[in-house]
Specification:
By secondary structure, the protein is an alpha+beta fold. It has three helices and seven strands. About 50% of the residues lie in helices and about 25% in strands. α1 packs antiparallel against α2.
Amino acid sequence: MEEKIYYKDDRVKVTDLRITCNHVTVPIEKIENVIVDFKVATMTVSVSLFMLVLLLIPLLCYFYGPYGCWGIILLIAGAFWLRMIYKTYTVLKISLGTRTLNILETSMPNREYIFKIEEALKAAVLDVSSGANMAV
């Protein structure tokens, strides 16, 4: 029996039997739900803290002199954190009973890539579940 391929590229392969992504394989029949999640709260907090530190640097330097340079260190750390959240903003999750697995993460501009995989995965899950109902 040959597998029906719903989506395939260098990192992800979705068939009627399994999804393989980043060297992790999950059987389609065990997948209950497919979710695309956005890290909105984390992104909001990181942007807010970055802007707060950016506004506080002149005050820190004015009142504390050389010790105000800690504000620059905080700004660099905030920028690094913001970049990390930005690179993993969109998350593709699947639920397997009580467990939820993060299958793939990507940045904001690449969220269409996640949506393509989500569509293929939902089609595969729907085909497998409808095929199981027919067989019964």
